[in-house]
Design brief:
Subunit structure: Monomer.
Function: Crystallins are the dominant structural components of the vertebrate eye lens.
Family: Belongs to the beta/gamma-crystallin family.
Protein name: Beta/gamma crystallin 'Greek key' domain-containing protein
Helix content: under 10%
Shape: elongated
Number of domains: 2
Keywords: Eye lens protein, Repeat
Length: 216
């Protein structure tokens, strides 16, 4: 795994004096952290401590399990490339936020609950088809429906407000607790989810869901 970052408020001459952070056991020993004044990688997201892209900023080009050493709060974000899942707490825990390329001048624009962003990951590129099966009950029981397109209102299609299990067969998806892609979000990769807790939810409520499209 390769991580590259930059504290944009520092000048190039200051970088030699910075000690590289010590990463936890969740990272392999071959992790390389490189501070530079410019990032040339394909993917980039910029976190700002203040609203409207003001204050200290940090640029990231890959997965990071703990951002807390780079900034204390996050009130605006600019996604220059890639699809990203952001997490409220370190180690990919807490509220999740799916961000595509664009500008987010305050945390309400990514439907954030607060200004806490402590970890992030890129979603893998996917060029094939999309397919997900949702179920009325746990362990793939009860009524089942299969989808290959976005669903802005689950109840209108499924006749249930709750999804207790699902099978993501192709592509990557995001569940939203409210219709029209609102409310708490949950990122799902191809896998079997036998109960709603498997995708990190505390209840089975799903109001809408959509594909993670490769808008790089």
């Amino acid at each position: 795994m390769y991580i590259r970052g930059v504290l944009s408020h520092l000048q190039h001459r200051d970088l030699k004096s910075i000690q590289q952070p010590t990463w936890g056991n969740s990272f392999n020993s071959d992790v390389f952290v490189d501070y530079v004044t410019h990032i040339g990688d394909e993917f980039r997201i910029i976190f700002y401590e203040d609203r409207n892209f003001q204050g200290r900023s940090y640029e990231c080009s890959s997965e990071c399990a703990d951002l807390s050493s780079y900034f204390s709060r996050c009130n605006s974000i600019r996604v220059e490339s890639g699809n990203w899942i952001l997490y409220e707490h370190p180690n990919f825990r807490g509220h999740q936020y799916y961000l595509r390329r664009g500008e987010y001048p305050d945390f309400q624009h990514w439907m954030g609950f607060n200004d806490s962003i402590k970890s992030c990951r890129l979603t893998p590129q996917h060029r094939g088809s999309y397919r997900i099966r949702i179920y009325e009950r746990e362990n793939f029981g009860g009524q089942m429906m299969e989808f290959s397109e976005d669903c802005p209102h689950v109840y209108e299609k499924f006749r249930y407000n709750d999804i207790y299990s699902c099978n993501v067969q192709d592509g990557h998806w995001v569940f939203y607790e409210e219709p029209n892609y609102r409310g708490p979000q949950y990122y799902l990769r191809p896998s079997e989810y036998r109960r709603y807790s498997d995708w990190g939810a505390s209840s089975p409520r799903v109001g809408s869901f959509r594909r993670v499209r490769d808008l790089y």
